[in-house]
Structures are given as structure tokens and as C-alpha cells.
Amino acid sequence: MAVRRLILALLLALLPMPAAAAALPPPTGPVILTVSGRIAHTNGAGGAAFDRAMLERLGLASLTTSTPWTEGVPTFTGVPLGALLSAVGAAGATLEVIALNDYKAEVPAADAAKGALLALDMNGAPMRIRDKGPAWLVYPLDQDRSLRSNETKAKMVWQITRIVVR
User: Fold this and answer.
1) Tell me, what's the pLDDT at 149?
2) Which of 20, 39, 72, 166 is the most buried (most CB within 10 A)?
3) Could you give the CA distance from residue 116 to residue 92 in angstroms, rounded to a whole number?
4) Which pTM does this prediction carry?
């Protein structure tokens, strides 16, 4: 009987253990975005809090496109939505994107493949709250004319403070 227990204990020790959810580093500056819900990677009890530097470390991309709310054709720089979702280990199909004034929009996580960008800068300058910042979900409207719909425009939330993965 003792031999069986020993063999069982050895076999269990050899089985791969599930990996623990990776923790993100804590923010060192002011938090501008919190991601919660169905995510695997966190840095606090409420989910994943990001300061600007943390978001920038996820990798930046630029997008030049017109919008109904800007003059000319500005260049936006920020984090591709897919990079953000990957960083938090998002496991949901829908994102509830919430603005500073509690405006909410449901955004399919699949919109990351459409080139959605969490813009932090416009024309080389950080977006302030009065300029739709600190983060604005922007789509490549000029590159994909099918995105020029009222449905897409409703998903272009600015002054984003929270994202809940559902």
C-alpha cells in the first residue's frame, strides 16, 4: 500500500501544473485605464491598471485617418487594441468601453483585427481630457470605408477610463 502511494505521489509530481496567471507590473504613474472582467493578467484586485508608460511599453502604432470629430486628417498614435487584449489575457468576445462621463459602448473584441487603435496622441501631442484623451478608440475609417457607419462611430469612445471584458 505504501509503495502505491509513493508511486502515485511521484506520478502526480511529474504531471505538468497549470501555469499561474501572469501578473502585470504595478503602475508607477497616474492610472489612465483600468481593464477588468474576463482577463488572466492583473496587477490588482480590480483587474489591470495602466499608466501611460505601461501602455506605451505594449508597443505603439500610428494611424492617419479622418474622423467626424476632427479637422483634416490627423495622425493618431497609440496601442493597437489587440496588443492591449493580449497583455491582459482577455478571454471574452465583447468589450464594454466606458468613458469618463460614463458613456458606454459594446465593442466586439474581434474589432482588434479591423485595426482599432487605443489612441493616446493626436498629431504628436498627448491627448488631454479636453481633446478626447487620455485615450480614444479610433478605427481606420479612411483605409476601410465599410467602417464609416453609425455603428462604428458609436464605438469610437473617447475619454476612455475603463474597459470590461465580457
Assistant:
1) 97
2) 39
3) 17
4) 0.86
